[in-house]
Amino acid sequence: MSQIVIAKFGGTSVANSAAMNNSADVVLSNPDVKVVVLSASAGVTNLLVALAEGCNPDVRQEKIEQIRQIQYQILNTLPDSQVVRDEIDRLLENITTLSEAASLATSLALTDELVSHGELMSTLLFVELLRSRKVNAEWFDVRSVMKTSDRFGKAEPEVQTLSSLCQQHLQPRLADTLVITQGFIGSESKGRTTTLGRGGSDYTAALLGEALNAKRVDIWTDVPGIYTTDPRVVPNAKRIDEIGFEEAAEMATFGAKILHPATLIPAVRRSIPVFVGSSKEPTAGGTLVCNKTSQPPLFRALALRRKQTLLTLHSLNMLHARGFLAEIFNILASHNISVDLITTSEVSIALTLDTAGSSTNGSSLLTSALLTELSALCRVEVEEDLALVALIGNELAKARGVGKEVFGVLEPFNIRMISYGASSHNLCLLVPGDDAEHVVKTLHHNLFE
């Protein structure tokens, strides 16, 4: 294993000049950091996504002006940066041209091309800032190594190709320069820009960590680590100093915003620890996510995922029949839908779908075509605006008294669905969206405080 550390900074960590300088301090405080992966400056990606959806000339101009202001606020604090100024202006012109095209006809490929500009700009500015501080830093276009499928909005990286391209083009540069590159974006076989889906910058950092066999991946955000639940929901939430990969992956899968679910997979494959800390207070410590932790507790954390949809499918044909579930899952697969939780009875099946952040463009999963296909087989009921509360822990399926500890305090709430036993790491409850925070507070108070 090399001594390389990959450092990734999210949008708030490169939001403005002060935040970028903080992030630069964090990078320069560790000589092992050789590759820095950046998101777009906070707010820029949302503006670019809005432009990609097509808008009238006035709104378009206003949004492009907002992007220009965010980037120029940083640019204006840098000394004599004419080259970078020209580059930023060129990218802003690109954004204008592409958003005009989007107002005539939108496409996922066009969206990815447009959205990628956020990361291209933030990395250019960060390199310039480092150079103004006399650091030997180099801008690197991640698209030259991050080869992906052509599923725009949610492209899959080609891990073998990435590995060999990194050894060829990236590894040799690390001996004497600090490489700054983009998260979230890649390119497909024809060279068109792709994106890895929301939260993809963490994924990029872990993929590069795997390809370069790094000793650690540092994810710097605006929160100093992973907590027993979202501190905005429960102010008494406690930081977890060390957590196992499986627990962290469960937390991420069930909605803990701090890490993207897929992020950890490349790191797990190579047993590379992932550190999560705050770029605002780098000395405040953080959470280390590693292969195994000593004495993992029964209850580790609570995660909350909103905007869940419950599909209940009723059919008398299910009774003693074979192949009914296979048909249902074939239909869902043909629409690129993955199911979260599932419970069945003799004549019905209930499934939950995660409709939050399904792809970069946030399009809905429940299309009329899908519902029509399902309705041909069975009666379909749809319930929306539910929330999934997941209790993450260890050996939950083997422990005694878990039901009493959990359900005893949830007497006042309506629980729509329970999933327990399939994994020893989680117990999931589906509750009405309006009750979600109360449920989390009640459980946290009982299990963690």
UniProtKB/TrEMBL annotation:
<protein>
    <recommendedName>
        <fullName>Aspartokinase</fullName>
        <ecNumber>2.7.2.4</ecNumber>
    </recommendedName>
</protein>
<comment type="pathway">
    <text>Amino-acid biosynthesis; L-threonine biosynthesis; L-threonine from L-aspartate: step 1/5.</text>
</comment>
<dbReference type="GO" id="GO:0005829">
    <property type="term" value="C:cytosol"/>
</dbReference>
<keyword id="KW-0457">Lysine biosynthesis</keyword>
<feature type="domain" description="ACT">
    <location>
        <begin position="313"/>
        <end position="394"/>
    </location>
</feature>
<dbReference type="InterPro" id="IPR054352">
    <property type="entry name" value="ACT_Aspartokinase"/>
</dbReference>
<keyword id="KW-0418">Kinase</keyword>
<dbReference type="InterPro" id="IPR002912">
    <property type="entry name" value="ACT_dom"/>
</dbReference>
<dbReference type="InterPro" id="IPR042199">
    <property type="entry name" value="AsparK_Bifunc_asparK/hSer_DH"/>
</dbReference>
<dbReference type="GO" id="GO:0004072">
    <property type="term" value="F:aspartate kinase activity"/>
</dbReference>
<dbReference type="InterPro" id="IPR005260">
    <property type="entry name" value="Asp_kin_monofn"/>
</dbReference>
<feature type="binding site">
    <location>
        <position position="45"/>
    </location>
    <ligand>
        <name>substrate</name>
    </ligand>
</feature>
<dbReference type="InterPro" id="IPR045865">
    <property type="entry name" value="ACT-like_dom_sf"/>
</dbReference>
<dbReference type="GO" id="GO:0009089">
    <property type="term" value="P:lysine biosynthetic process via diaminopimelate"/>
</dbReference>
<dbReference type="InterPro" id="IPR018042">
    <property type="entry name" value="Aspartate_kinase_CS"/>
</dbReference>
<dbReference type="Pfam" id="PF22468">
    <property type="entry name" value="ACT_9"/>
</dbReference>
<keyword id="KW-0028">Amino-acid biosynthesis</keyword>
<dbReference type="InterPro" id="IPR001341">
    <property type="entry name" value="Asp_kinase"/>
</dbReference>
<feature type="binding site">
    <location>
        <begin position="8"/>
        <end position="11"/>
    </location>
    <ligand>
        <name>ATP</name>
    </ligand>
</feature>
<keyword id="KW-0067">ATP-binding</keyword>
<dbReference type="InterPro" id="IPR036393">
    <property type="entry name" value="AceGlu_kinase-like_sf"/>
</dbReference>
<dbReference type="InterPro" id="IPR041745">
    <property type="entry name" value="AKiii-LysC-EC"/>
</dbReference>
<dbReference type="GO" id="GO:0009090">
    <property type="term" value="P:homoserine biosynthetic process"/>
</dbReference>
<comment type="similarity">
    <text>Belongs to the aspartokinase family.</text>
</comment>
<keyword id="KW-0808">Transferase</keyword>
<feature type="binding site">
    <location>
        <position position="119"/>
    </location>
    <ligand>
        <name>substrate</name>
    </ligand>
</feature>
<dbReference type="GO" id="GO:0005524">
    <property type="term" value="F:ATP binding"/>
</dbReference>
<dbReference type="Pfam" id="PF00696">
    <property type="entry name" value="AA_kinase"/>
</dbReference>
<feature type="binding site">
    <location>
        <position position="232"/>
    </location>
    <ligand>
        <name>ATP</name>
    </ligand>
</feature>
<dbReference type="InterPro" id="IPR001048">
    <property type="entry name" value="Asp/Glu/Uridylate_kinase"/>
</dbReference>
<feature type="binding site">
    <location>
        <position position="227"/>
    </location>
    <ligand>
        <name>ATP</name>
    </ligand>
</feature>
<dbReference type="InterPro" id="IPR047962">
    <property type="entry name" value="LysC_ACT_2"/>
</dbReference>
<keyword id="KW-0547">Nucleotide-binding</keyword>
<feature type="binding site">
    <location>
        <begin position="221"/>
        <end position="222"/>
    </location>
    <ligand>
        <name>ATP</name>
    </ligand>
</feature>
<comment type="pathway">
    <text>Amino-acid biosynthesis; L-lysine biosynthesis via DAP pathway; (S)-tetrahydrodipicolinate from L-aspartate: step 1/4.</text>
</comment>
